[in-house]
Amino acid sequence: MTDILVAGETLVDLLPGAGETLRDVDGFTHRPGGAPANVAVGLSRLGERPAFWTRLGDDPFGDFLRETLDGEGVSDALSRRVGGNTTLAVVSPASADGRRFRFYGSRDVTFGFEPEGLPTDALTAVSWVHLGGVALTHPAGRTAMRRLAAAADERGCTVSFDVNYRPDLVPEGDRDAVVEAIRDILGDTDVAFASDEDVAATGISSHEGEELAGDLLGHGPHTAAVTLGSDGAVAASSTAAPWGETTARHGGFSVEAVDATGAGDAFTSGLISRFAALTDGTTASTAAEADLADALAFANATAALSVRDHGGMAALPDREAADAFLAERE
């Protein structure tokens, strides 16, 4: 039995070879990706084995992604194969200026979640639901994710939401609708995940770090975690949080990074895993700040370990590796 449901896209990351810009790289390597897919696999490796509501094209890339998820122990019970080509996320070289990702392929296939196909039956079997924000860039996906968040909240599930705003995927004229959907889902969210860059692009807040976490709390969540890249992460919580009202910061870990693609998703899976344990009382301590700081440390450990190989999934750690890394570093 699973206790966590993840919802969102699975796609293919095309990682560049040597070169300063996309124009002159010497080729690409394909890797499984998509923020929610990375989170689902990250949770599975940490022992959580989540249910995963996603869409896969009926092309060879869709076959590759399904085989990858199967190999990671992520069930296909809520996965739908649809006609069309899988979305490709082309990653720019680390040294290149401008956009980090460029998206190609069918948006309908990967992001067009049908509102009529909500996995409402699965909500009776889980206590935590995590949603990714990229699907909000598609009209159908936007409606589906809003309805899923509302249904999960109504059924008493803990809802977490990764803002993950991608302006390049927002059709002209749809920005206001996407931002409205983000605000709406935040209202049904318990735990929000974001980066300064994500939120600044939406216009929801112009603050960074701890102040941004506080702003996010004002939109409905009882806990907000803001990733700070190589500087670690900060989180704030209100009195409504199971771990109480507090703020905690963790500076992250210095490691030799090969590829940072998906590091934020590794952080998310680590934090959800630790928060879920705190929620069910199995590891909760008596000090709220200690709980939150411990969760941030574990999440930063999973993120640090995830950058050891190319691609968002390749180096996602299991629980034993994350615990050992923490023990060694702290």
UniProtKB/TrEMBL annotation:
Carbohydrate kinase PfkB domain sequence ranges: 1-318
Molecular-function GO term, any one: kinase activity
Zinc-finger is among the record's keywords: no
Coiled coil: none
InterPro entries: Carboh/pur_kinase_PfkB_CS (IPR002173), PfkB_Carbo_kinase (IPR050306), PfkB_dom (IPR011611), Ribokinase-like (IPR029056)
Statement: the UniProt record of this protein carries the keyword Thylakoid: no
Pfam family, one: PfkB
Top-level taxon: Archaea
Keywords linked to the UniProt accession: ATP-binding, Kinase, Nucleotide-binding, Transferase
Annotated Gene3D superfamilies: 3.40.1190.20
Family note: Belongs to the carbohydrate kinase PfkB family.
Protein name per the record: Carbohydrate kinase
